[in-house]
Amino acid sequence: MTNFYSFQGTITMISDFITGQNAEGEGCYKLMSVENGMGALVNFVVSPKTYFVDHVMVAVGDQVTGYYDGNAPTILIYPPQYPALVMVKKSPYQNVKVDHFNSQLESSDGRLRLNLSPYTQIVLTNGQPFTKNPANRDLIVIYGPSTKSIPDQITPYRIIVLC
């Protein structure tokens, strides 16, 4: 179970990130600087394994949310630098939650409960169908409006299972 933390803001810089002495990975890793508008800054290391919701291209000036493993060791530098697991470009048409969902399909923070419908698309990160129960897994949940209950009850448009 991954302990997902997030940071939301505007991309202020994208540059190549050097990972080693040989040129094998050159150009495959990016460093994205994200500022939240209140002075806080985070650098995300974006690798070929980073999942971009909807496979969108991002650029300087885009509003994004980066998710990283809050339990992973990090180097003590400023600004903080985290390996990005999932990146989400802000969209007025959808909400996104990345978290571990328990056997009741409730998020680990207790704020969101999923009500699956026959129309909920459940897929793997490679776009192939996921045919098992998504409970007790790390999920990317894409949804629209939610109830104002605690926890919010939603019927997701799409669920991406992070195997």
Report what the structure shows:
0% of the residues lie in helices and 42% in strands. It has 163 residues and is mainly beta. The chain folds into two domains: 4-89, OB fold (Dihydrolipoamide Acetyltransferase, E2P) (Beta Barrel), CATH 2.40.50; 95-161, no CATH class. Strands 4-7-5-1-2-3-6 form a seven-stranded mixed beta sheet, with no helix packed on it. The mean pLDDT is 93.
Observed structural traits:
mainly beta; OB fold (Dihydrolipoamide Acetyltransferase, E2P); four-stranded mixed β-sheet; 0% helix
Architecture of the largest domain, according to CATH?
Beta Barrel
CATH-defined topology of the largest domain: OB fold (Dihydrolipoamide Acetyltransferase, E2P)
Overall average pLDDT? 93
Uncertain regions spanning at least 5 consecutive residues: none
- Beta-strand level of the residues, as a percent range? 35-45%
Spatial strand sequence of the major β-sheet? 4-7-5-1-2-3-6
What is the 3D shape? globular
- How many E strands? 13
Order of helices and strands: EEEEEEEEEEEEE
End-to-end C-alpha gap: 10 Å
Helix content: under 10%
Could you write a compact summary of the structure shown?
By secondary structure, the protein is mainly β. Helix content is 0%, strand content 42%. The strands form three sheets. It has a seven-stranded mixed beta sheet, with no helix packed on it. Strands 8-11-13-10 form a four-stranded mixed beta sheet, with no helix packed on it. A two-stranded parallel sheet has the order 9-12.
